Amino acid sequence: MAQITDEHRAALQLTLVPGVGPRHYRLLVSYFQSAAGVLGSSVKQLRSVPGMGTKLCQAICRQQAGPAERIISCCQQHQIEILIPADATYPTLLSEIHDPPGILFCRGLLKPPDALSIAIVGMRRPSQYGLRTACRLAEELSRAGFTIVSGLARGIDAAAHRGALSAGGRTLAVLGSGVLNTYPQEHRELALAIAAQGAVLSEFPPLSAPPRGAFPQRNRLITGLSLGVIVVEAASRSGALISARHAMEQGREVLAVPGQIDSHRARGCHLLLKDGAALVESATDVLQTLGPLAHPATDRQGRPLFHPRELQLNAQEQAVLDLIGERATSIDVIVQQSGLPTARVLATISALEMGQLLDRLSGQYVVRHKP
Length: 371
Prior knowledge:
single chain, 371 residues, alpha/beta, DNA polymerase, domain 1, Rossmann fold, Arc Repressor Mutant, subunit A, nine-stranded mixed sheet, three-stranded antiparallel sheet, 17 helices, globular
């Protein structure tokens, strides 16, 4: 378990102030350079921050350390990580949304390959078709190398988590309650399995019950952690559509599974498809939809990835791509180091170029493609 620093303590204390949500937290910490700097400021100094009212500034100055220390003690007892945006393990994708949580509680372990995450969400009362599809997509994507993100809710969420677990892949569950107060309660064993093979995450203290409005708020984290979100069965008014809206606002890909045209469970997905969401039937559709990564990721073998399509490469394509760096690489060098015939190397380079995984430069040089 990572060490709890003074800045972690200050960040937790600040987020516990009623009225200090993610946006106020980010604004204050940016202005004063740290959470500790915020807590060390006077009401007058806090009032100088645009959008800060007198009552909220007074509440910050009155906040005591006791509640934060009790939460820290609980986290240490139950091996729960407390992450703040400055931590190296805080998810990069999540830090880029406009309202990332100032505190993230993590039961389990976040790993670098989790940067390749896909969210799967949908109805709490799906059809058998929806359950099968969510489970199958999660299995296929897990085997391809993705981490599956969902909300541990009944129905599609649970099917997605179980699909990832059955494939031996990683999965992240984002809760609208504390990580020690699993909701719904019948998913306690599932939550433990997820924590052992991924992580259970929440921005709420570990023992918290779901506060009012927690689940729409939680949905922005599900999409924020992911490169894209797949909606599997959703009514025309559905929490899954809220997730889709968050994804659009965050610049994430929105994908949807089609259903029967006379089923109310398919109406939300069909609305998304009409609005331009990508149609999904298999993991291949997802890989073809996702664009280049804004930040290089690593796969489960520790290799750098610049595009999710690299997860689809065969052994020969991967061997050639591994020899191409971020700087210009000679084709003659690739032929020599790969041991492959020149014609085969050239054909492989052409295929990688068509897949937008590398760029051919003038002359006999190639380079890894960057967005």
